[in-house]
Specification:
CATH class: Mainly Beta
Oligomer: single chain
Bound molecules: fe (ii) ion
Distance between the termini: 62 Å
Number of strands: 26
Number of helices: 1
Radius of gyration: 19 Å
Strand order of the largest sheet: 1-22-19-24-17-14-13
Length: 293
């Protein structure tokens, strides 16, 4: 039997619904960053709550780090492209996140941690994604895993796309982390100029991409370009079975998707719960030392 030349799994690509420019801001003790997924997009991009991109060659922009602070009710996924960040938490865990590594942390009922740069010069670049937890799991025990770059599942497509599978599954390669309810997909894709890449996506999953080098075109008909520093929200076209992108130049892009929870989202800073009462409880627990007890 001849091999059928079928370059793509996706028959019909999602289109680009909207381009988003991140908001420059600072967080922690004064780390400069770009908030790509902002509060007003939490409903549209459910189950994702936030995406921050940080990147600087200037130590002044990152050296203050993120001293001790709490979280409750969701997960943080920190992906370090360049640089070194040390993590310590109230459960006694400690880890060094560096050069292509991922830290996946489930805050659950509560964690108090610090995330501090372990360098005084050079470049630091990375991303922090917040993934919501279903109501029934918001008070589960805290959990975390450090995954070094070499341990992250990775493949190269025939066309030449280099794909790191942080979560979910891509062309038969299972990611480092999976979650039953939200089924998150988190890919970091390096595409040489002109190379195409496709990814199957369930139509109901919310999906977006963030280009951080180069530029690419989204879709096969009426393709629209997304340049570095922009997020592209992918339309939930009912007839589309995934997304097709093509690099306009040498490109690096994050592709992120997940099944929406459809539950109320109430956020107060580092706490994300379903009701105001639960937020009051989190604040009270934090004040009285019971958040991470
Ligand atoms: Fe944190």
């Amino acid at each position: 039997m001849n091999t059928v030349d079928k370059p793509y799994n996706v028959q019909q690509s999602r289109s680009l619904e909207r381009l988003v420019t991140g908001i420059p801001t600072s967080d922690g003790a004064g780390v400069k960053l770009t908030r790509v997924l902002t509060h007003d997009l939490q409903r549209r991009l459910d189950p994702f709550l936030m995406l921050d991109a940080f990147g600087s060659d200037s130590a002044d922009d990152y050296i203050a780090g993120f001293p001790s602070h709490p979280h409750r009710g969701f997960e943080t996924v920190t992906y370090m492209i360049a640089g070194r960040m040390r993590h310590r938490d109230s459960a006694g865990h400690e880890g060094l996140l560096e050069n292509g590594g991922v830290q996946w942390m489930t805050a659950g009922r509560g964690i108090i941690h610090s995330e501090m740069p372990e360098q005084e010069e050079g470049s630091m670049e990375g991303f922090q994604l917040w993934l919501n937890l279903p109501a029934g799991e918001k008070m589960r025990p805290a959990w975390y895993r450090d995954i070094k770059a070499g341990e992250l599942p990775h493949y190269r497509s025939e066309a030449g796309a280099d794909v790191t599978v942080i979560a979910g599954s891509s062309h038969g390669t299972a990611g480092a982390v999976s979650r039953a309810q939200t089924e998150p997909l988190y890919l970091d894709i390096a595409l040489p100029s002109g190379v195409r890449f496709d990814q199957v996506l369930p139509p109901g999953h919310n999906a977006f991409l963030y280009v951080y080098r180069g530029a690419l075109d989204v879709g096969t008909t009426d393709a629209r370009r997304v340049a570095a520093g922009r997020m592209g929200i992918l339309a939930n076209d009912p007839a589309a079975d995934g997304v097709v992108v093509q690099a306009f130049s040498d490109t690096r892009v994050l592709l992120i998707a997940g099944r929406p929870l459809g539950e109320p989202i109430v956020q107060y800073g580092p706490f994300v719960m379903n009701t105001r009462e639960e937020i009051e409880q989190a604040l009270n627990d934090y004040r009285t030392g019971r958040l991470a007890a």
